[in-house]
UniProtKB/TrEMBL annotation:
Highest classification ranks of the organism: Bacteria, Pseudomonadati, Pseudomonadota, Alphaproteobacteria, Hyphomicrobiales
Pfam family, one: DUF1062
InterPro entries, alphabetized: DUF1062
Protein's organism: uncultured Pleomorphomonas sp
Protein's name in the database: DUF1062 domain-containing protein
Length: 205
């Protein structure tokens, strides 16, 4: 029997980030959501591509440039095929590109609703500690301490106390619990002598 339970958590955001712009139709700042649609125009050998957003208030559209006036030969074949097909996975990847969004607006709404898929990769429920490997395909707005509290069935104050006591270790530097989880992040939790060890192990995966 291993003294460590190893699990992988895949954390998937339910909601795409929403840039905030002044909407002429609404008469004020409004968040815009991705419509799920792409636009691709050809002008000779050059291409323009946009991801289409809609105002939350009135459905007025905003075309976010993906690229403009680019030679077709310079577009990766996989990206070009995805653009032409309107591939949903490609659209989702673009919608979560925060760097590209920040070049258009300083105000971006992020949301904390996530789905977490848990998979045990080693050890068993008799372990005295948990090692959690995080897979985060796209940025999420949820703080790490909130994620751990919700998924382990603990309070945020308990999560903080475990970290202070050295029983919860997370890579990523200071204040890491107050920041969103990152892809590839690892978490180590020691449960030896805890009365609710079995409940935490069961919740972990």
């Amino acid at each position: 029997m291993s003294d460590r339970l190893s699990v992988r958590w895949t954390v998937v955001a339910r909601d795409c980030p929403r840039p905030v712009f002044a909407c002429p139709a609404c008469g004020g700042d409004r968040p815009f959501h991705p419509s799920g649609k792409l636009r691709l125009n050809a002008n000779g050998k050059r291409l323009d591509a946009w991801l289409i957003y809609k105002c939350d208030g009135c459905d007025r559209t905003w075309n976010r440039p993906i690229f403009e006036r680019r030679l077709a030969a310079d577009v990766p074949p996989g990206d070009l095929a995805a653009l032409r097909a309107g591939d949903p996975a490609f659209v989702r990847r673009l919608a979560f590109d925060l760097s590209a969004l920040r070049r258009k607006t300083p105000v971006i709404l992020q949301f904390d609703r996530v789905d977490v898929e848990k998979l045990a990769t080693g050890g068993d429920q008799g372990a005295t500690g948990v090692d959690i490997a995080l897979v985060v395909p796209h940025p999420v707005g949820l703080r790490l301490d909130r994620l751990l509290a919700a998924e382990l069935g603990l309070t945020r104050s308990r999560i903080g106390a475990l970290a202070e006591a050295g029983r919860l270790d997370v890579d990523g530097g200071g204040n890491v619990l107050k920041r969103p989880p990152r892809d590839g992040q690892s978490i180590r939790l020691d449960l030896d002598d805890m009365g609710d060890r079995q409940a935490i192990l069961a919740a972990a995966g």
